Amino acid sequence: MTATDPALTALAQGWSTLALLHGRIEAHVERALQAGHDLSVREYSLLDVLSRQHDGEGGHLQMKQVADAVVLSQSATTRLVTRLEDRGLLERYLCPTDRRGIYTNVTEAGLKLLAQARPTNDGALREALDEAAKNPDLAPLVRVVESLHATAPA
């Protein structure tokens, strides 16, 4: 295969189209969250992931798991946690069974902000997908994204 191989070119174009869709959606949601709640997409995602923790077995996430869930490096996730902790939206505590482990929980203020921001996030996501669906190159990807919701486990 060469760099001008049609299969590679099609693959690169597909990846470029997917990146374009992601970028448009993220930028639209970012603007809405910033304007309405002073939250970035990453901050919202972190609050959302951490709010889903529970007290049952395996219910609390280690920092690597959190980083994977919000698609950031561990160091970037730690900085993000620190920023939200400084704002009173998160709190860290020692793992009761392993004093070396540190967990992070969403505070009441964080849960309140998340509840206020969730409709903004969901609405902006819907708007961005609807707008992208008008573009013939992006419409097939929008349909795939929408179909993922229909098949996701509850």
Strand order within the widest beta sheet: 1-2
Molecular shape: globular
H/I helix tally: 6
Largest sheet report? 2 strands, antiparallel
> Structural class of the helices, strands and pairings?
mainly alpha
Termini separation comes to 43 Å
Order of helices and strands: HHHHEEHH
Q: How much helical structure, as a percent, in the residues? A: 55-70%
Strand content: 5-15%
If you compute it from the alpha carbons, what radius of gyration comes out, rounded to the nearest whole angstrom? 19 Å
Low-confidence stretches: none
Strands, count: 2
Mean pLDDT: 90
Layout of helices and strands:
Elements: H1 6-37, H2 41-51, H3 63-70, H4 74-86, E1 90-94, E2 102-106, H5 108-133, H6 139-151
Antiparallel strand pairs: 1-2
Structure, described:
The structure is a single chain. Helices cover 67% and strands 6% of the residues. The longest helix has 32 residues. The termini are far apart. The chain has a two-stranded antiparallel ribbon with strand order 1-2. A hairpin with a 7-residue loop joins strand 1 and strand 2. Helix 1 packs across helix 5, helix 2 packs across helix 5 and helix 3 packs across helix 4. The chain is mostly helical. The chain has six helices and two strands, in the order H-H-H-H-E-E-H-H. The model has no long low-confidence stretch (mean pLDDT 90).
